[in-house]
Design goal:
Layout lengths: L1 E5 L8 H10 L18 H23 L2 E5 L10 E7 L18 H15 L4 E7 L3 E8 L2 H10 L11 H11 L8 E7 L10 H10 L2 E8 L7 H10 L4 E4 L2 H14 L12 E3 L1 H22 L1
Parallel strand pairs: 3-4, 3-6, 6-7, 7-8
Antiparallel strand pairs: 1-2, 2-9, 4-5
Helix pairs in contact: 1-2, 2-9, 3-4, 3-8, 5-6
Length: about 300
């Protein structure tokens, strides 16, 4: 959908005083007497036309100053969204089964892949990135609007690909790095883990400090049975990171958690740096210039 707009609409406030000046500062023609005026046509008609052209020229110049633009809101770059990073635990324990709501023997990680992919597609207005952590963490996909690419990449991931341990601090710090170039006014990190922090060079406390410094809201999700994950740590991290802490013991509960986060972060936030518009002021300037040249030429001919 294309929307006409003006970047500096206040410029039209200059139009009334300019039109007033044009009206009050009319050039009084010098009187000359001829016996046969019929040979000269009707000069009054041109005077009226000259006034109209001056008004039109002034209006075009003010319109150009107001900077007319057309914004294409069907362009993904002009969508109202926030930047989100999903930080997923891919340690060895994520290979455990019994998390599915049905009789499926799918592993925890396979279920997380499916739910995370569905979540990504729901965030139509947002840019999303994915970070995976185990013994270490890495950015699986940068923060981008290309949902199909993100979903496809999530499908390529596997448990144990970053090691067997759980470096929660690394998972958070790499997520902060993924959001480092973000210009969005709202940045969100959703960290999921089924274990306890036991690896990595970055502590969870240091990682949360990075989150707060970068202005990121942190949500944490602990999955599995009670006692399998460090609920106290995840709860503290979410509290200090300005977000919320959730738990899920099965697939159904995990889906409900992501749906709740989806509702909590459903606000439409737009950064001005992300607005792409096509400007048309040059056409108004050209029109005003043509009219001005016409008026100058006409006055020169009269002289």
């Amino acid at each position: 959908m294309n929307i006409w707009s003006f970047e500096t609409l206040w410029a039209f406030l200059l139009l009334p005083p300019i039109l007033y000046c044009l009206y009050r500062c009319k050039i009084v023609p010098q009187k000359r007497y001829f016996p046969h005026l019929k040979f000269f046509g009707n000069p009054g008609k041109w005077r009226h036309m000259e006034w109209v052209l001056k008004v039109l020229s002034a209006t075009l110049m003010i319109g150009a100053l107001a900077t007319p633009v057309i914004i294409d809101y069907s362009d993904p770059r002009n969508r109202n969204g926030i930047d989100i990073v999903l930080s997923l635990d891919a340690s060895g324990s994520m290979n455990a089964s019994g998390f599915a709501s049905d009789e499926s023997r799918a592993s925890r990680f396979e279920i997380v892949q499916k739910i995370a992919s569905d979540f990504v597609h729901k965030r139509r207005e947002d840019n999303v990135g994915v970070v995976v952590f185990g013994d270490f963490a890495f950015i699986a996909t940068p923060v981008t609007y290309e949902k199909d690419i993100i979903s496809e990449m999530i499908g390529y991931l596997s448990h144990g690909m970053a090691g067997q341990n759980t470096a929660i601090g690394e998972g958070v710090s790499q997520s902060v790095r993924a959001l480092r170039e973000s210009k969005a006014k709202s940045k969100v990190l959703i960290l999921l883990s089924d274990g306890e922090h036991n690896s990595g060079a970055v502590s969870p406390k240091e990682a949360v400090s990075m989150v707060r410094k970068a202005g990121i809201k942190l949500y944490t999700i602990g999955i599995g049975e009670k006692g399998e994950f460090d609920s106290k740590l995840l709860s503290t991290m979410a509290h200090d990171g300005g977000g919320a802490y959730f738990t899920a013991t099965n697939e159904k509960e995990l889906r409900a958690v992501y749906e709740q986060i989806d509702r909590l972060e459903g606000s439409r936030i737009k950064s001005a740096q992300h607005t792409f518009a096509e400007h048309y002021y040059q056409y108004l300037v050209a029109g005003a210039l043509v009219i001005t040249l016409l008026l100058m030429w006409r006055r020169r001919v009269k002289l």
